[in-house]
Amino acid sequence: MKISEIGEFGLIDMIAGMIAGHRDEAAESSKRLIMGIGDDAALWKGSERTQVATTDTLVEGVHFSLKFCDWESLGWKALAVNLSDIAAMGAHPLYALVSLSLPGDVLVQDVASFYKGMLDLCSKSGTTIAGGNCSSSNKVVITLAVVGEVDAGRTLLRSGAEPGDVVAMTGFTGLSAAGLKRLQSKGRNNARNRAEIAGGGRESESLLEEAFLRPRPRLKEAQFLAGKGVKAAIDVSDGLLKDLGHICESSKVSTEVNTGSVPVHPLLKEYSGRNALKLALGGGEDYELVFTASKKTLSKVKEGIGCPVTVIGKVTGKSEAGKLIIRDEKGKVVSPGKYGWEHFKQS
After folding, report:
1. Rounded to whole angstroms, how far apart are CA atoms 249 and 274?
2. What is the pLDDT averaged over residues 243-247?
3. In this structure, what DSSP letter does residue 315 have?
4. What is the pLDDT of residues 10-49, one digit of tens each?
């Protein structure tokens, strides 16, 4: 059945039923929600903690293609990219507001799958969907706003880097970009691509594709960083170097990165070969964390964060504020080229 057959209010009733049936009464956000879907605006009880809010939009043909992205994964990712912004502030998520613009020939079951993906991530992150909007459009446009909160004094900011800090990152970057390339190429020649990764098989394929389709925002890890005294962080959405550059600019510091220290996942090396490092430096949409910290703080972080943490550079000073110096494995300064994503700017 198409959504044009049940109309806006029929679609809203279905969505409201899914959310009501999923509500986690044990979650802090559910306990504080006074009014969700059903009135002109959502109501919830506030607190003395610092409030955090973010919003993001996914546009069909710009951020995703339904040719290789299923609706359930799209729901997961739409929430994940917003939760990653909440994570980058060291905050806990509370509520999400979801606005959908959809063509009338979209199937009702696809919208249900979309919400299933979001609700699965809601369960894992403690987030409650508190409301939203539906409208018609000639393409799929998804806008989410997420509200969270953080203890005073534990906010992670782009402006918190200091000279003498080391630059570190969680996990691995580049896998999402490789996953996207794989999904795009599978559409052109699926049989050939199934055998492309030597010895990897379907499991390797799925790891790459999951990195793009279902990223895991580093919520707990970011809260751990904030609790250990880290002050500066950003999530890797536009590319490792580009996002680190935002820290340099906001903190008014210069930074050096050694590309030989950037961790490259073995699977990325298998799949991308010579391009592996380039994808790790500028692929984007990995939603790992890049942060700066003193060496003493970093040692505390590594003891208990529960994920790989790698030092990739250092904050050098304030004499050339905003400058990002890239060195290769031999220490030679190299041109970073064009890495990372930027809207409205053609390559």
Report:
1. 30
2. 95
3. E
4. 998 999 899 888 877 667 788 888 888 888 888 988 889 9
293-332 pLDDT, tens digit per residue, is 999 999 999 999 999 999 999 999 887 778 898 998 888 8
- pLDDT value of residue 92: 96
Q: What's 205-253 look like in SS3?
A: HHHHHHHHHCCCCCHHHHHHHHHCCCCEEEECCCCHHHHHHHHHHHHCC
| Neighbour-count burial for 124-157, b at 16+ CB within 10 Å, e otherwise | ebbbbbbbbebeeeeebbbbbbbbbbbeeebbbb
- CATH H-level superfamily of 158-334: PurM-like C-terminal domain (3.90.650.10)
Tokens of 263: 């961790």
Name the CATH superfamily housing domain 3-150.
PurM-like, N-terminal domain (3.30.1330.10)
Contact 283, 174 (CB under 8 A): yes
Residue 265, CA distances (Å) to 181, 207, 246, 272, 277 in order: 16, 11, 24, 11, 10
Question: The tokens of 35 are what?
Answer: 């009014």
